[in-house]
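Subject: for your reference before the review

Hello V.,

The reviewers asked for a structural picture of the protein, and I figured it would be easier to keep everything in one thread rather than splitting it across files. Below is the amino acid sequence we used in the manuscript, unchanged from the supplementary table.
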Amino acid sequence: MKSWRVAIVLMGGLCGGAQAHPQGGPRGDVEILWVRHDETVFNHYDRVQGWSDTPLTPAGEAVAHAVGVGAGDIRIDRYYSGDLGRQRETLAAIMRAQGINAPPVVWPALREVFFGNFEGLPNETMNAAVGRQLGLGDGQQVARLRQQGKVSLVEFVDAVHRADPRGEAETAQQVRDRLQQALENMVNEALQHGRQRLLVVSSGLAIGVMIADMTDNPRRNAPLGNGALVRIRYHDGHYQVLEVGDLHYARAGGRAGQ
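And here is what came back from the structure prediction:
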């Protein structure tokens, strides 16, 4: 593993501590609202976008604003995002819509999956490589199966890792560890400071891999839409995934702006 990747993987610790454990911890209650960033230029042109980064499109900016408006009637005690530009832009639009001026917390551990040599290529190229690894057919067939939630995200990410000719793409275990560690760290901070609700902007595949062993919700393998929400509740050492792929806030905010 290259040293520059090691630095990011280790950022999963952020506040110190060992690998995250999805269950077990101090007493208390925290709600964590995970939001998938909104549409970017690479999303629009159907290209692989992990650690490579492009800005939000005007449509993406509008959805981010709608999420902020739609969630405007609930109290958020702390805002987090990954350090990728699209994640920070999404969170900034949400916070502007809510009239929040406080600085957010930016953690590199909340980045999307790193896709190695596939970064920036057409998604069909990466899907075709996954299809060969998993015996699922060509790139178009893999894309259809993914849209239907019929491909395990863990298996997908590990297939990308195996197919990467440089061997630098992340494994599902690496992604899960850094995201779950970040989740544990933010919950521990919330309990220490009396925060009850957090909003976190990350990316779709990373969020999906994070919750893969935390829920049996059949939507856990389906792609998250722009501005989609994954709601997690922490209670006395236990995590429960309450909603996966919810678009309530984006739709409510969109209606309010009409």
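For the response letter, the relevant points are probably these. The domain at 19-114+174-256 is CATH 3.40.50.1240 (Rossmann fold). Strands lie at 29-36, 78-81, 105-106, 197-202, 229-235, 238-246.

Happy to draft the paragraph if you're swamped.

O.
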